[in-house]
Amino acid sequence: MDKISILGCGWLGLPLAEHLIKSGYKVNGSTRTIKDISVLDGKGISPYLLVLDPEIRGENIDGFFDSDILIINFPPERREDIVAYHELQAVSLIDSVKRSTIKKVVFVSSTSVYPDLNREVSEDEMSPPTKASGKALLKFETLLNSSSEFKTTILRFAGLIGYDRMPGRFLAGKKEVGNGEAPVNLIHRDDCIDIIHQVFEKDIWGETLNACSDIHPKRKDYYINAANKLGLAPPDFIESEKYSYKIINNDKLKRILNYSFKYPDPSNIDE
Fold first, then answer.
1. Adjacent-strand bridge partners of 57
2. The pTM is what?
3. Are residues 257 and 199 in contact, defined by beta-carbon separation less than 8 angstroms?
4. Strands 3-7, 69-72: pairing kind
5. How far apart are CA 75 and CA 252, in angstroms?
6. Quick one: fold of 3-161+186-213+246-263?
7. N or C: fewer beta carbons within 10 Å in the chain?
């Protein structure tokens, strides 16, 4: 089995590491906080304290990169220079990968790379991002794809839900909420973990894939239903004919991975 390094063992990365260990992989995992070292170690993950600020620094950096596959799983930091800063993080990280044994990379990106175009979008969409986070992620993607020393597959995840991320709490009780008619793009954490695993199980490299549930309920229907499931006051949406949206097309992912979603309809997930 390949050895896998996961840069960022948080809400998604930690259960991903546990899943991969159960599947027989050896896993290195990074954290930014000393207190989480013991948490990783207790779950059978080889723990490393690493920070990108924006240069990579930490303890035994070479040991973390002594691996076959790297999963990059950390979002752009919310700051005024988000795009420039995230690019510096990418450059530092890529330099370390080039000096290592790693030959394959999975990059956890986001559908925020797509602007609201009021239509369906697929991976070949050329319209530039409007959100700063989307601009930062797209630049990171470009830098990875331009590196010939390793192969990269990019996974653009929709909004992450499941377990303690309970969307019913997000808008509960709020008044005059907009964009109620817009379709939502969501994906359950269990699907994220399964999709990442299948990328290297099926040796799918050099691809960019949208990862989003099949069904796109209206925003108002979804959040009212989610609040009701938790017994919370539902949000009150403004009635308006104008709204902005995008619908994430997942056909390519389902075709290439031969993938069926565990949670194809986010409305059917129990809170």
1. 51
2. 0.96
3. yes
4. parallel
5. 24
6. Rossmann fold (3.40.50)
7. N
